[in-house]
Structures are given as C-alpha cells and as structure tokens.
C-alpha cells in the first residue's frame, strides 16, 4: 500500500496566548510539519480565529481543524467558516470533521443547539461537506473525517479526502488493516485518492506527562505491552522504520502528533517528509 508521500501535522490548542500560538505556528513550519491542527471545544479559542492567526504568520504551513465537532454548528455555518478560511488562507485550510466527544452534548446545549443521534451527527457531517463543495465552486477544500465507527468509515470512503483512523489507543494492527479496507471499499473507484492519517499520542522513550496518561487511559508499559499504534518509541531511525512499516501495511502516510511531542518527532519529519 506504499506510494503516497509522508507528511506530518501538529495538533495543539491555543491556550497560552496569541504570542505563544504564533511562535508555535512558526516553529512547526520551520521543523517541516505540513499542518497545524486545532481541536474544537468551547473551552478553547475558536478554531476559525486561531487558525487564521497561525496562517497569517506562516507562508507554507497548512492549518486545519482536528476536528470540527458537528454538534456545535449547523452544517451551513460550519461550511461558511470552512470556505472563509480556505479563501482567506489562499487554499491552506483543511477541514477536519467529526461527531464530537460525549461532552459535546452539554456544549451544544450552551449554544442553543440540539444534540442529534449518532446517525444525525453523521448526517450533519455529510451535509457540511455538501455545503462546502457548493461554496467552493472550482476550488476544493480538503476534508478529513474522523473515521471511528463503521458508518463514519463508510462516509469517509464516500466523501472524504483524508480518513483519520480514530478509535482509541488499543486498536490492533489487524483491526487497523480491516478499517482501512472498509474505507477503501466504500470509496470504490476513488480509493487510491484517499489519504490515510494516524494520530500519535506518545513519541520517543521519555516519560509520559500525567495528562497524556489520563487522556490515553494507560501508562507507557501498557502501551508497549499491547503494541499500541498510538505509541512511536525508539530512536529517530527506529521511528522512521516503524512508520514505513505502517505505511506498507495500512497506507498511513499522514502522521499527526500533539505539540508536546513535536520536537521528539522533528528528526523523523526531516527524514521522511515527501518520501
């Protein structure tokens, strides 16, 4: 399944003020990362504002959502934001979409929006993409779908440019291969056009920060024991070799990582980007 060139993204929430956020964007670009991605949560700055600022202080860095939660906007409003960012960044925006974490039910209520069923939230994603395509005209905003469940994988195959393989830290290698196959089957003739993405929770051999342990729900020993694909341990060369093995097995060429580990991954980015 090898063939698509590697690229890398940094996932970060703009929590430290405007200067820290601008500096992070510049550093990501200097280290060779392709994208700076930000989550969608009412406790953080709005993605649209944050990503516009990041794009304004960089020249080649792409920006994107990781991911825009369907319960927090109507599809038309989400498409308006996405098309606006695509236009104002001159095509450097990538729209990541997902159904949102369970906490989004309360956040949707804060915004006066209804919280749809799982199927309803997927329909919101589909409708958002349709609205974006209408607004884009001859342009094309790349769309990523967080493909955590079977229906999300089916939708990713039908409409996404990028399929993010979601589902937790303990999805096995066999299960990952099966999930990629599901997306490709749903994509039909456009299967080879889909870029597959994998998110890393932990990089290198240093101790995991406590908040990462809490988010993942496991310590390093457990991740190692269960051969977690959320972990990329070892030396830079060992990490390079492992990512190449994963691309050969699953076709995953777009690798994202939390900003706390961006310096650890930077040597790998330098060696693999574009190859």
TrEMBL record:
Residue span, Luciferase-like domain: 16-210
Highest taxon of source: Bacteria
InterPro entries to which the protein is assigned, alphabetical: F420-G6PD/mer, Luciferase-like_dom, Luciferase-like_sf
Coiled-coil region: none
Record-linked PANTHER family: CONSERVED HYPOTHETICAL ALANINE AND PROLINE-RICH PROTEIN, PTHR43244
Designated name of the protein: LLM class flavin-dependent oxidoreductase
UniProt source species: Fodinicola feengrottensis
Taxonomy of the source species: Bacteria, Bacillati, Actinomycetota, Actinomycetes, Mycobacteriales
